[in-house]
Design brief:
Shape: elongated
CATH superfamily of the largest domain: P-loop containing nucleotide triphosphate hydrolases
CATH topology of the largest domain: Rossmann fold
CATH class of the largest domain: Alpha Beta
CATH architecture of the largest domain: 3-Layer(aba) Sandwich
Largest sheet: 5 strands, parallel
Number of helices: 18
Distance between the termini: 43 Å
Length: 495
C-alpha cells in the first residue's frame, strides 16, 4: 500500500487557496450540525515522525469553533496509566455527543512501536488489533464518526526534515534520539505499518493514507476527507438494523434452577463470617502487592440484599484499596457519552477492588424493559459487554458477577417490612413497586442476560438470597476462592 502511494503530488498556492476556503466554510457549518445532532467525532492522526501531523491538525482546526473540540497528544503509557487496561486512557478521553476529539497519535502508536521492537508476539499483536477493532466498532455502532489518517513520507524526506529541525533549538527536540532510532528502523516500520493498516481498516473506520510531502496537498485532502465523513454522518443511507426481540411469555431459564430454600443458622453464620472476612482482607493485600485488579459486580432484584452483601464483603477490607461504586440512570456528562464510558472511567487501578452496586448490565435490564434503549441497542450490548469484560480479564483482572435472587413472595415481605420500619423507609420507592409490576418482563431479561453473558473469564454466580445469611457467606466464599485461584496461577502479575 505505502509503496504504491505517489509522494510527489502537490498543489500550487493559488489552487490551494481556491480549494481550502469553501472547505473551511463547509466544515464550520457541518460542525454546528453535528453538535445539534449530538454526533461525536474522533479524528486520528498517525504517521511518520516529521510527517506534519501537528501542522495538519493545526490547519484543520482553523475551520472549527474551538469550544467544540479537544486535541489529545498521546505519549507512551506512563507508569500510572499502566495500572489500567490498555484502552482505558482512550475511553476516558471520549468526546461528548456533538463534540470532537482529535488525537495526535492514538491507540495505535505504542502497539506499533512494540511490534517493531519485538516486544509483542504475533498472538499478542493480533489481540491488540482486535481490541482496537472492537473499540472502534462500539463507537461507530453508537453513532460516532471515526476518521483515521496515516501521513506518509519517504525515508529520504524524513532525513531531510530532521536536518532542518535540528538547525533551530526551538524545534530540534522533534528530531531527538527516539525519532532518529525510528528513522533507522524505517524499513522495519514499513512492514508493520502495512500490517496495521490492513488489519484495522474497516468500512466504518477506514484508514486514509495520504502523501505528506506537500503540505498544501495534504491539508486539502485532510479537509476533503473530514468533510465527506461529516456529510455521510449527517445524511446517512437508511439502514435497517436488527429487529427488537419480540415480547414473549417467560420461558424456563437459569433462575428456575435456583434453590431458594438454602439457609444458614445463626451460630454457623456468626462463626464463619469473621473468618471469611479476615481471609479476604489478607487476599486484598496480596492483590495490592502483586497489582492484581479485582472487579465485583452486584446485580439482583430490588430488596435482594445487594447492599448488605457488599457491606459484609468490605467489613474488614482496607478502605484505601477498594471503592464501592453505585450506579443509577446516567445523568449529566454520563448521558452524553457512550454508555460504557462511565464504567471505564470508574475502574480502580491495578491492585484495588472495584465493587459495582448495579453496573453496565442496566443496558440489558432496566433500559431494555423500560424502553430506554432501542431493540438494536440492547441486543448489541450483549456482545459489547462480553468484549468489555474480556478486556478486563485479558489485563489480569478477577471478574466476579453476582445475581442475588429472591422469590417474588420474599420481595413483597421485604417491601412491606421497609414501609413499616421508619429507619428503612428511604429504601422503598414508588419505582420499586412499579418494577415489581413488571416482574415477568424483568425475569425474562435476567434469564437472557445470564445465558448470553456468562463466560469462562467472567461467569455469573447465582446467589440464593431468600436467606440473607446464606447469601452473604456465599458471596464472600466465591470472591475469596476466585481471588485465591487467580493469585496462585503462574501467569499472575508479579508472581
Amino acid at each position: 500500500m505505502l509503496e504504491t502511494l505517489a509522494l510527489d503530488v502537490s498543489l500550487k498556492k493559488k489552487e490551494y487557496k481556491q480549494a481550502i476556503k469553501p472547505l473551511d466554510a463547509g466544515l464550520c457549518e457541518a460542525q454546528r450540525h453535528l453538535r445539534q445532532a449530538g454526533i461525536p467525532v474522533l479524528i486520528v492522526f498517525e504517521g511518520w515522525d516529521a510527517s506534519g501531523k501537528g501542522t495538519a491538525i493545526g490547519r484543520l482546526v482553523h475551520a472549527f469553533d474551538p469550544r467544540g473540540y479537544h486535541v489529545h497528544h498521546v505519549h507512551s503509557v506512563s507508569e500510572q496509566e499502566s495500572y489500567w487496561p490498555p484502552m482505558h486512557r482512550f475511553w476516558t478521553r471520549l468526546p461528548a455527543r456533538g463534540a470532537m476529539a482529535i488525537f495526535n497519535h492514538s491507540w495505535y502508536r505504542q502497539v506499533l512501536d512494540e511490534a517493531v521492537n519485538s516486544q509483542r508476539s504475533p498472538t499478542q499483536l493480533a489481540r491488540a488489533y482486535e481490541r482496537m477493532r472492537v473499540f472502534e466498532r462500539q463507537l461507530t455502532d453508537d453513532g460516532a464518526v471515526v476518521i483515521k489518517f496515516f501521513l506518509h513520507i519517504s525515508k529520504e524526506e524524513q532525513a531531510k526534515r530532521f536536518l532542518e529541525l535540528s538547525k533551530d533549538p526551538a524545534y530540534s527536540w522533534k528530531a531527538g534520539a527516539a525519532e532518529r532510532q525510528r528513522h533507522e528502523q524505517y524499513d522495519r516500520y514499513v512492514d508493520h505499518i502495512e500490517a496495521m493498516l490492513r488489519e484495522t481498516s474497516v468500512p466504518r473506520a477506514p484508514w486514509t493514507v495520504l502523501p505528506a510531502t506537500d503540505k498544501n496537498y495534504l491539508n486539502v485532502k485532510v479537509a476533503e476527507t473530514v468533510m465527506a465523513a461529516f456529510q455521510r454522518a449527517l445524511h446517512p443511507v437508511e439502514n435497517v438494523g436488527p429487529a427488537a426481540m419480540p415480547e414473549k411469555e417467560p420461558a424456563p431459564g437459569p433462575l428456575d434452577k435456583v434453590d431458594l430454600s438454602r439457609s444458614v443458622d445463626k451460630d454457623t453464620y456468626e462463626e464463619t463470617l469473621p473468618r471469611l472476612q479476615k481471609e479476604l482482607c489478607r487476599l486484598q493485600h496480596l492483590c495490592y502487592v502483586r497489582r492484581k485488579p479485582v472487579v465485583l459486580v452486584f446485580e439482583g432484584w430490588d430488596a435482594a440484599g445487594k447492599g448488605g452483601a457488599i457491606r459484609r464483603l468490605t467489613w474488614d477490607l482496607d478502605p484505601r484499596g477498594y471503592a464501592v461504586i453505585p450506579f443509577g440512570a446516567p445523568e449529566g456528562e454520563e448521558a452524553h457519552k457512550h454508555y460504557l464510558w462511565r464504567f471505564w472511567r470508574s475502574l480502580q487501578k491495578s491492585g484495588h477492588f472495584s465493587i459495582y452496586d448495579r453496573s453496565w448490565y442496566g443496558r440489558v435490564l432496566v433500559e431494555r424493559v423500560e424502553g430506554y434503549a432501542a431493540g438494536e441497542e440492547w441486543l448489541r450490548a450483549y456482545g459489547e459487554i462480553n468484549a468489555f469484560e474480556a478486556e478486563l480479564a485479558d489485563f489480569g483482572a478477577v471478574v466476579c458477577k453476582f445475581w442475588l435472587h429472591i422469590s417474588r413472595e420474599e420481595q413483597l415481605r421485604r417491601f412491606e417490612a421497609r414501609e413499616q420500619t421508619p429507619e428503612k423507609q428511604w429504601k422503598i420507592t414508588e419505582e420499586d413497586w412499579r418494577n415489581r409490576d413488571k416482574w415477568d418482563a424483568y425475569r425474562q431479561a435476567v434469564s437472557d442476560m445470564l445465558v448470553k453473558t456468562s463466560t469462562p473469564a467472567a461467569p455469573w454466580t447465582l446467589v440464593e438470597g431468600d436467606d440473607k445469611r446464606h447469601a452473604r457467606l456465599k458471596v464472600l466464599t466465591v470472591v475469596s476462592d476466585r481471588v485465591r485461584e487467580a493469585l496462585e496461577r503462574p501467569d499472575s502479575p508479579m508472581q
